[in-house]
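Example 3.2
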Amino acid sequence: MKQKKILLVVAATLAAAPMMTHAANLEVYGQLRMAVTAADNGDSSPGQEDSTVAISSNDSRIGFRGNEKLKDNLTGLFQAEIQYNVDEDDGYTSWSSGRDSFVGLQGNWGTALVGRLSTPYKNATGLFDPFTDTEADFNGSGDKIISHNTRANNAIAYVSPNRNGLNYALAYATSVQNDELPQTSADADQDALSLSVTYEEGPLMVMGAYEKIEDEKAFAFGAQFAVSDKTRIGVLIDDVDDQDNTVYASLNHKLRDDYTLSAALAFRGDSGNGVNDGMEYFALGVSHSYTPTVSVFAQVAMVSNDSDSTVGLKKNEAVTGEDISALSVGMNISFSTK
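Structure, written as tokens:
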């Protein structure tokens, strides 16, 4: 029943799009990201299969966004976006637990947003991931390769305009879980603060980010450098409370105009005190763009977990202390009314 309701909303919006586009510059957009994945998580427990072949939807999505000029140097804007699991019968994700959805104001002073938002920490570290929304995404299951890949509920954010290559963003979430009143003390303590600064000049981009969710703090520092028009490399350091630093390095190289080679590796040492929670990660992939909106890809990803580590891939959840791997082949299609 819920799926029928959401499809009716989508159909009604598409039908009204010609009128709404003129009124609010409406864009209906989305992505279909399907893949076939052969995965192994090393689980040798009785009754468990350690390897399987699965269909993955890889954060397929549909969204609606638009803007309206209110007066000189002031524009109102909005976005409503949901995830849709194309391979499942009842596969949509509700608005309340979906992707970035917000209203906001934009001027020459910057952009202010209110809603469910990717935090500045998530956006800044995400610049280093060449495998976003695939099985090799560093925002995996279980313990993540890079921490704090957070979409915060009940968030207020400010994003600066670009000032000579310098950008900064700040967000505060009143409670990342629950905003019903009256709140319990536990709900009120689930606030979050996140900020990032990026600077880009010529072939070099550097960034720094900080995030605090409840009592856990995280810092990230990174740099990317364009070696040539075809090759870009990056290094990211992720420092989280009660965890050893994670060092993540990535490479993007255009083999031809329509072929791209991507690679990434990461290392995390044990946090100490007898806890063996270190890990090593490696991913390699190639993608081919037929058009600006249609591409295919193939990739392999592996994680070697220490005895107490549970770092997983996107859909391949780790078993404590076991190595995991995945071979994935897929197709991405994006669409837009603009």
